[in-house]
Amino acid sequence: MIKLTAFEKKDGNRLLLRFSDGAWGIYDFAPLIATGTEMTKPLQDPAFFSRCFIELGALAWPNGF
Fold first, then answer.
1. Distances in Å between the alpha carbon of 37 and those of 5, 29, 41, 42?
2. Which one of 44, 47, 53, 64 is separated from 10 by 20 to 30 angstroms, measured CA to CA?
3. Integer Cα distance of 4 and 56 in angstroms
4. Is there a contact between 49 and 43 (Cβ–Cβ < 8 Å)?
């Protein structure tokens, strides 16, 4: 199973994601955040967005997303 191993915060809602198979890329979360769902709405706050972390090989936020 491929897992997220590291990330770097970039400008805005973009993160550089690095995976266990050596793949990497910059992902822009803006379209996902724009959906405004119960889980993504807190990510609109830059302070909350920056609280992301890796949990069991996946990107996560304190609200369970």
1. 27, 13, 6, 9
2. 64
3. 8
4. yes
Tokens of 33: 């955040």
Query: Cα dihedral angle (41, 60, 30, 36), rounded to 10 degrees?
Result: -20
Instruction: Tell me the pTM.
Output: 0.90
Residue with tokens 């979360």: 29
Distance of alpha carbon 48 from its chain centroid, rounded? 11
Give me the torsion for CA of 46, 15, 54, 22, rounded to 10°. 180
